[in-house]
Amino acid sequence: MVSDIRDALAIRALCERYAQAVDAGDSAAFSSVFTLDGHLVSNSTGSERHFYGREQLAQVPVLAKAGAVTTMHFIGNHLARVDGDSATGVTYCIANHLRDDRSNLVMMIRYDDRYSRGSDGEWLIVDRSVEVQWTETRQADPRPPTRTGDARQ
Questions:
Q1: Which of 108, 80, 105 is nearest to 93 (CA)?
Q2: Judging by DSSP bridges, how do beta strands 123-139 and 34-42 pair with one another?
Q3: What pLDDT, on a 0 to 100 scale, did the predictor assign at position 44?
Q4: What is the mean pLDDT of residues 80-87?
Q5: Alpha-carbon span 134 to 142, nearest angstrom
Q6: How is the chain split into domains, by residue range?
Q7: How far, CA to CA in Å, does 62 sit from each of 22, 65, 74, 109, 118?
Q8: What H or E segment, with its residue span, contains residue 24?
Q9: What are the CA-CA distances from residue 71 to residues 9, 24, 105, 109, 119 (Å)?
Q10: What are the CB-based long-range contacts (under 8 Å, 24+) for 31-38?
């Protein structure tokens, strides 16, 4: 039971690292949450796009932030089912995309995943399907960014 909880928490943390890498525009951190031959398919632009391997996956944060001043992906419900060194999972996300015109494009996203635990014990994404369920556009009142601390310390 304890190992199941640890695995579930490690996989959730993996999903959170994915979201933070997108928001930071960090291509290296983003591609590192996938296996070397990882795959992502997304319908976020209205048509299906596939990215194979870390080199192609490194393009995703740049594309995700196109047209946005900043983004914030909030990871909500997450459920992973672990079977040895493999797992599947579903994650819900609300992604905010602040634009130059002070509008906020909000995407309600569902991620369907397959994960694998490497020989080093680290969980990685093998395959991720990004399905935008719906979008909303809202007016925003952006504030200048402030940093009160760094979680990496």
A1: 108
A2: parallel
A3: 76
A4: 96
A5: 23
A6: 2-139
A7: 8, 5, 18, 18, 27
A8: helix 2-24
A9: 24, 8, 9, 14, 34
A10: 31/55, 31/57, 31/58, 33/124, 33/125, 34/124, 34/125, 34/126, 34/128, 35/116, 35/118, 35/124, 35/125, 35/126, 38/124, 38/125, 38/126, 38/127, 38/128
Say what the pTM is: 0.89
**For the residues 58-78, what does the mean pLDDT come to?**
93
Architecture of domain 2-139: Roll (3.10)
Q: What's the CA gap between 56 and 71, in Å, rounded?
A: 21
Alpha-helical segments (H) within 34-111:
53-57, 60-64
Q: Which of 91, 42, 82 is nearest to 66 (CA)?
A: 42
